[in-house]
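Hi support team,

I'm opening this ticket because the web form for multi-chain structure prediction keeps timing out on my end. I have pasted the exact lines I submitted so you can reproduce it. The total is 630 residues across two entries, so I didn't expect it to be a heavy job. Is there a limit I'm missing, or should I split the entries? Thanks in advance, R.K.
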Amino acid sequence: MKVAFYPGCVSKGACPELYVSAKAIAEPLGLQLEELTEAPCTGAGVLSEQNPDLADSLNGLTLAMAEEKGADLMTICSTCQGVLAGTSFHLAKDEQRRAKVNATIGDQGFTYSGKTKVKHLLWMLFEDIGLDRIRAAIKYKLTGLKIAPFYGCYILRPQEALGLLERPERKTYLEQLIGLLGAEAVEYRGSTKCCGFPMLTFNREKSLAMGGNHIMEAKEKGADLLVTPCPLCHLNLDGQQPDAARVLKKKIDVPIFHLPQLLGLAFGFTPAELRLDHHVVPTRGALEKVELKV
Amino acid sequence: MQFTIEVGRYNPEGTYAAAATPGEPYPPPWDKAPPRRYQSYSVDLPEHAVVLDALIAIREFQDDSVAVRCACRSAICGSCAMWINGHAHLACKSKLSEFTKNGKTRVEAPPSMPVIRDLICDMAPFWEKHFNVKPWLEGKKPAPGPMEEYRVPNAAMEELIQEVSCISCGACLMDCESFAVNPEFLGPQALAQAYRYAGDPRDAQTHERLGELSGPGGVWDCTHCYECVTQCPKGVAPLEQILKLRKMAVDDGYTQNAGTRHADAFAESVKHSGRLNELTLLPKSVGFFNIVGQLQTLPSAFNMIRAGKLPPIVHKTIPGVKRIQTIFQRLGGRFK
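Hello R.K., no limit was hit. The queue was backed up. Here is the completed structure from your submission:
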């Protein structure tokens, strides 16, 4: 299945392990990734709050690029998903807004007709690839691992623009997937909450406390690791975890996996192939539980 | 239809022990909230009944010691906001059949607010924030004469209808992620009200208001998680109003803050290369002359470098970046 692949800046920057693992699992899932190499950054909601028209045109251009490829747009980041799905939602129903975008990108060789569907890999697994195909790709069950899902805000909220009112099951895909891979999903309040990343540069201590609290809650419920479909959550929960431990005055030490890394392990890739050695919080303890080594 | 309701019981004397079973401690940051005990009741109500119907039935016919605050029963007065299955909702607007999970519905006072008794929380922190944003118009001078009135165009008031719909139930604050870790944060309800007045053409204090809202506890302390948009029972969408205030404040010249530096650094990076430069974003947002702030970020930066997570030193430009630069030239405004 052909998809217009939008990797997002972070998978090409501070989280290269996400890009590598996403590319690795594409083949066993039957995904033909046509990367949108000329698509700009979404602006992560920062640009749209200061300049909505600018953000509309940048993201409208990306949607037009996917439309030209004749494929759904696939993201691997909850934040990219939120921003692009939001733009797609508004441009589909608001002709005037779409005309404004086309007036800006028209002479750049692109027109957007409002048809591109934006789907995170997590949604594609259930809605396009199908559970049978995933089951067939599993070579190694992750039995014995207790995994806490961590969605990231923008794949859950706002609900209307993300299509969650028509498809409320999207709020349960991570739990379902963890079960499918043979592991146990940890139920905890923090799974749908904010990692604190958007506040990191404005209010560092509170941002770290926010993320750290959710990991601690999962840890107290027995989680060996957290899995997230959002690299920005990963940056705050993994990259800043030692600092969050200092703020909370608690020992945390819970590794944070990217969604494709978890799938990759079950598909038989080695931890090194998935770059599980490129994390701030060591993944060794969790991997040893399923007899894997970094 | 038979429904099972688990009611969170609490009183300062701690005398509900016999009838109720202890619950798990609340997750952090509320792990110090007073422990609640849960008491189960079974009520027979029609399929369309709401949570408040069940609570009133319990109080009237089974156990008159259950304390619940309610008045209008029509989602107008805002007094019955409480936690239902761990999220803030109006009990009078939440259908039992939709909330029943594993055969029961759990209701309790939210641990994010001080609790008085059972389902009644103390709204004092909420009202303090509300009054802190001066929720009234500071009229323009000269005032209209005795037989005149302030005239405003309809469109200007239509813009504010959404915020005027607020019923001060506090559901947004009860589930606010920033408030949970930062009690100083003004919170979604107060900030949505702040926009209602700052955005009103009759107000004479807009500039001063925006200055205060750009400070600690103000618009930049929101973590942008959309919980308030999801929980608000009246469609006020507080986050959207907070984002409008951020833009108004920046446009009005309040740019000496991390929020504006962050947006500027973000835009600069996308305009220059088409993508985000993570290497320069953080130091630029913190501010180059903020030595303490810069030092605070160093340990994490060092940890990330050691793990091999350093973004490429040479920041690559995406192919076709000219297109992006043209869009910035046309629509960039401040970011041109």
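A quick check on our side: The first strand of chain B starts at residue 2 and ends at 9. Let us know if the file doesn't open in your viewer.
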